[in-house]
Amino acid sequence: MMRRLAIAAAVACAFAAPAHAALTENLTTSVVAMAMGNAVTADPPGIQSIHFNPAGLARLTGDSESIHNFVASIRTSASFTPGQGFDVGGWRDDPLSNTSTGPVRQIMYVPGYGMPGWRLPAVAVPGIGMAWNKAGSPWTFATDSYMAQAMSLDRTTDPNDPGQYQGRQLQIQRLVYAAPSVGYKYSDTLRFGVSVPIAHAAFVVDTNMRFPNELLGVFGQLQKGWCPEDGGNIIDVFGFGVCGGGKDGMVSPFKKAANMRVELTSPFDPTINFGVLWEPSPKLAIGAVYQGGSKTHYTGNYVFTTDPMLRNFVRGMNASLLGPIAGAVLGFPSSIPAEQKGNMSATIPFPAHLQVGIKLKPVKYIQLNVDASYARWSEWDALRFQFDQSVKLLEVARLYGIPDSGKLVIPRGYKSVVNFAYGLQLNPIDRLSIRLGFEPRKSSVPTDKIDLLAPLPDTKLLSAGIGFKLNKNTDINITGSYMTGKFNAPANTSCNMNCNTFLNIIYNPYAGQDVRGDIHVRYFGFEINKRF
């Protein structure tokens, strides 16, 4: 048995990959739960009770095994239209105007290996769980492997895809590779449980960067009026050197400025789940689970690749008479390397989650589940990254009131919300279960914070599945789900994406644009359960 568990954990680590946008809870975790709209706290599904309510483990008898697999795909798109009176410091010819993002695929992060470089139309998330119960004992022990949270986007097919400025590639995943758990049967109606999911977390962002804002636009217009076409200006040489970078050093708010890639992992990050289940009668059950959060500490590496625009501009300024003095006052670097790399760290919260539910079974053949959940996504007020040195590209940002070039703070401003979920199970015959689920998911991303890094507005999740008992010791479950949502962010309404103000350098790459987008996620799950 333990040998099987070790093999299963290795398989999960080798092939598990995410397939969802940001802030997805309770997806690709349980085939049965997915079919019931994740409304299973009062009727936890077998070994997957480890995640949804570990008290449900105390309902298992004997030894058992659960092998499960999900196949999932995500498709998201966005279009850009200039807002009314579009103008960024005198610039009106944004090449991204009236364009749309292109194909989106998934990528994967393999723990212990990294990013294989594969672009996938869909990904598989396998896992295996085990449970042990000695006959007559109130104690049940178990473990499982599953994907607790994931987000995956790849926009690298088209090098001109306008989505490249908020994520050419984005991978956030939390893979639980072991979850030692115990359920205790206090009485025939009351059960308790606790589990300790141990996860490997990965955070990878690869994005091109541009900085359309009023200050940069005004400065670019000044260059256009002052600098000759070839960049030579004898007066400028004895001045501040704003023309010294030549044609490539001419500043534009719409030019690509740089590329940033960060790759961070946390190989061992445990949390804890507590659950209680009260079943006073076959017609009624009430359950609750608290899934503890974590201040996950990541370590890894970064690479900043700076384009000629800023490199040549800084070089030209420092080649003039007064430019170095002005640069010193503003905190500018003396030069910017084409590539700067090193090590970095970050503490990114994994939010705590509370869920309560009720099960009603008025007649033998019909069961209705209703759940309410709350996750503390308000902890994602900002993402803070610490570098091992001063990043020369970020030293330019001191002009915009960012004093520490050894750190990068990316505002998020997410919120904590309450969501409801509904599940219906029909049992026309003893061996067959028909399940339907509906989950109207309020997004933790406010409308004034939405962007292409987290293109998840309010969504609706629809699910359907069946369960069939092959014999007294074996059953299978099959589920399909579809989640969809749309967003509309008029210009200057989301300051994580399209605000056009004087100092909005981090980070509004679509300043002044009306942005419309959508997301569509499809999943298919299969599970086989065996009792020994």
From TrEMBL:
Record keywords, A-Z: Cell outer membrane, Membrane, Signal, Transmembrane, Transmembrane beta strand
Main location: membrane
Subcellular location, record wording: Cell outer membrane
Span of the signal peptide: 1-21
Domain of life of the native organism: Bacteria
Membrane topology of this protein: Multi-pass membrane protein
InterPro entries reported in the protein's UniProt record: OMPP1/FadL/TodX
SUPFAM superfamilies assigned to the protein according to its UniProt record, in alphabetical order: Porins
Family: Belongs to the OmpP1/FadL family.
Protein name as it appears in the record: Outer membrane transport protein
Species, as recorded: Duganella margarita
